[in-house]
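Exercise 7. Predict the joint structure of the components listed below.
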Amino acid sequence: NAGVMQNPRHLVRRRGQEARLRCSPMKGHSHVYWYRQLPEEGLKFMVYLQKENIIDESGMPKERFSAEFPKEGPSILRIQQVVRGDSAAYFCASSPGVGGTGELFFGEGSRLTVL
Amino acid sequence: SQQGEEDPQALSIQEGENATMNCSYKTSINNLQWYRQNSGRGLVHLILIRSNEREKHSGRLRVTLDTSKKSSSLLITASRAADTASYFCATDVGAGNMLTFGGGTRLMVKP
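Solution:
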């Protein structure tokens, strides 16, 4: 049973370009969460999605950032017109939602470097 | 500000010693969880303690929860070099399993 899959693992972009990060949750999981981690810091919540719905995006900047979790395919975190401050590790986690234990299952992260 | 704050921020011990990490939080919780992160990797769930529990064990891990003080501790007994990692507490306030993480304790276990 494959875990949470994130790609790419590493992404380099120049200022002003777009970054797209993908996350496939564990099989049977319908809830996806995106977190951002700066070096030597904890994880900061960005957005919580269920299939085709954004449940909570309170941690996501209103400009340049967007997220989706379509009916088919992976969840996508999109960062437009990247700036150096967007350089970070972005982690996706999933849970089954109803019937789950409360535990989140994390992917290995996507490390974005903005030049 | 973060819901959870770990203390200490960094801890260095010898193999075989016990490691204790503390976490304080601010609001009422459904449960509190501890995760481990090896350098450059994702987080791995260690243990979950519910708000009506006071202590929980899992192998060499022991977690306590004091809801009156809004604090938790993680004890790793008989530490090993392989325990070297960052440890994070995370609180679930009941909003769809959305977790709020602390800043972490960086544990180094010297062989």
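Discussion. The mean pLDDT of chain A is 93.
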